[in-house]
Amino acid sequence: MMAGLKSLQMGSRIARWYSIPLLLVLWQAAVASGLVHSRLLPGPGTVWTALLEETGNGALIHHAGITLARALTGFSLAALIGMPFAIAMARSTLMRNLLEPIFFVGYPVPKIALFPVFTYVFGIGTPSKIAFTFLECLYPIVVTCYFGFRGVETRLIWSAQNCGADRVTILRRVILPAAMPSVFSGLRIALPVSIIVVVITEMIGDSVGLGYYITIWSTRFRFANVYAAIVVIGICGLALDQALLAVRRRALPWQREQS
Amino acid sequence: MKAASVTAQHWLLPALVLAAWQIFGAAGLLPRYLSTPTAIAVALWEIARTGELFAALAVSLFRVAAGFALGTAAGMLLGLAAGMIPAVRHFFDPLVSFLYAIPKVAFLPVLLLLLGLGHASKIALIGFSCFFPVFIAARHAVLSVNRLFLWAARNMGAPPHIILFRVLIPGAAPELFAGIRIALAHAFVVLFAAELIGSKSGLGTIISYGEEWVRFDLMFAGIVCFAALGFLGDRLLLAVRARLLKGQMLATEERLLQ
Predict the structure, then answer these.
(1) Cα–Cα–Cα angle for B199, B200, B201, nearest 5°?
(2) B221-235 tens-digit pLDDT
(3) ipTM of the complex
(4) Which of A156, A242, B142, B159 is 20 to 30 A removed from A227 (C-alpha atoms)?
(5) Under 8 Å CB-to-CB from A181, ≥6 apart: which residues?
(6) Is the pLDDT of residue B258 over 50?
(7) Backbone angles phi, psi at A120, to 5 degrees
(8) pLDDT at B240 over 80
(9) Which CATH architecture has domain A44-251?
């Protein structure tokens, strides 16, 4: 009975993921039949070989490490600096009036247009990538956290005040924990942004990183390597998201999963 | 607090930055690549007068509008279908969750070779990037429409197309717009990267020509236009949403983002 149920569950899980193998088979068939240009779209087997080879000789790991380090540095800086801004805007009218236009009017502006200026100020290497990732991550973090800190129920703050808590205690023990779910949703929006931004800016101009790797191998017409790098970016994105969810489970055991 | 002093506080930081930029830039204390606000305004006027600006603007606007429209339409249709039909959902879910994590710009070199340096490669890439946030929002929105509304409609004998247009789509609309707004933001990022990496026309080229010719005022003029285009696009979308969703916008804090 149990075994039967298990195999049924396994069966439905396979049924759910059938589209990826199906697409791989179609892809292979299209390449083998000569329908698509095999130089532009090499078959999955060729991509897999390139992935193993380039991981084995360390090239992909080297570039992925640089891209990840840049993305995470920019992201962490944005989280560390953005959170105090969000708290200040939520708690003080003066700060809100001063900063609101910068964060709310600036929110829909495509900040990528400023990247050329960043390369002049910070150089084309790592510093401009980190600074730009910081800017791109700062907006979603500040805006989402701000709504989280504003949304803390006034009742909770009042009862803490009634119990004689001072401002610091209220911030640490009431406002921060109550706003945590919003903080994590802001971080979850910003984390993939950081990887996307680093890869794009590396494609625009750099000599290391996965974005550079994609550009250089596509100019050499070795598209198997390009697709291998794309797979690596996808894996990095999934891994970071899962890591953040794991941190949230530890930090917010009371909140149910909603992914 | 008086409204006038609130407005003054709103404008304080931007005005200070602009003034400092102008004063220090004109005094030669800033690096040359930062130019000055007045020089940028002059450059803007110059490219507006020669018509260069409008030609570039038209090209960029066409690419972003076409890509956004195609990607959003595809994402909306398939996302609504995935929300309503389990078979469609099971086919797309694994593909979307894997592809969503990948920056779509990574496919730019392939698309450039496949479709050339012209409009087609940019439109395809923008459409591809816009598809995912809209698909995810539509799929999730349909699934989270209150089941009671559906049951009520069915009980009263509403045919499927009435349920779709009168229950599901209105119920899903607020979340759908959130997804479309993200897609629009993606569209501009992709447009910029695509025009900077492989293009011979559009706003991105004004910026890169400005860099090449060491005309930093021109580079900034391009940047200002690009930023304004993205900002106005977002405002237009919000205005459309406010018209379509009059009642559903009440009691939300989103007005702050407008």
Answers:
(1) 100
(2) 999 999 999 999 999
(3) 0.84
(4) A242
(5) A148, A252, A255
(6) no
(7) -75, -40
(8) yes
(9) Orthogonal Bundle (1.10)
Q: What is the predicted pLDDT for the residue at A14?
A: 65
- Quote the pLDDT of residue B100: 83
Task: Tell if the pTM clears 0.90, that is, is over it.
Answer: no
Q: Do A18 and B90 touch (CB under 8 A)?
A: yes
Q: State in Å, rounded, how far the first CA of chain A is from the last one.
A: 31
Domain extents in chain A: 44-251
Whether residue B114 sits in one domain with residue B192: yes
Put simply, whether A10 touches B (Cβ < 8 Å) is no
Q: Tell me: do B18 and B90 sit in the same domain.
A: no
Are B90 and B161 within one domain? Answer: yes
C-beta atoms of B106 and A114 within 8 A: no
Q: Which of A14, A117, A227 should one mutate to test binding to chain B, selecting the residue with the greatest count of B CBs within 10 A?
A: A117
Distance from CA of A98 to the nearest CA of B (A): 5
Å between B158 CA and nearest CA of chain A: 31
Rg of chain A over Cα atoms, rounded to whole angstroms, equals 23
How many C-alpha atoms does A239 have within 13 Å on its Cβ side? 10
Q: What is the pLDDT of residues B20-76, one digit of tens each?
A: 999 999 998 888 888 899 999 999 999 999 998 999 999 999 999 999 999 999 999
Whether residue B69 is found in the same domain as residue B19? no
B8 and B85, same domain (yes or no): no
Residue A164 backbone zone (phi > 0: left; psi -120 to 50: alpha; other: beta): left
Contact between B90 and A14 under an 8 Å Cβ cutoff? The reply is no
A17 contacts B109? CB cut-off 8 A: no
Q: Are residues B143 and B225 in the same domain?
A: yes
Q: How many domains does chain B have?
A: 2
Query: How many residue contacts between A and B have a Cβ separation below 8 Å?
Result: 144
Each residue of A20-72: pLDDT tens digit? 888 888 888 888 887 777 777 888 889 999 999 999 999 999 999 999 999 99
Same domain for B24 and B119: no
Tell me which chain B residue has its CA closest to the CA of residue A228. B106
Mean pLDDT value of segment B120-139: 95
- At residue B256 the predicted structure's pLDDT band, cuts being 50, 70 and 90, is very low
Q: Are both B97 and B25 inside the same structural domain?
A: no
| Nearest C-alpha in A relative to B140 | A259
CATH number of the CATH domain containing B89: 1.10.3720.10
Q: CB distance A117–B11 less than 8 Å?
A: no
Q: Which of B210, B172, B193, B209 is nearest to B76 (CA)?
A: B172
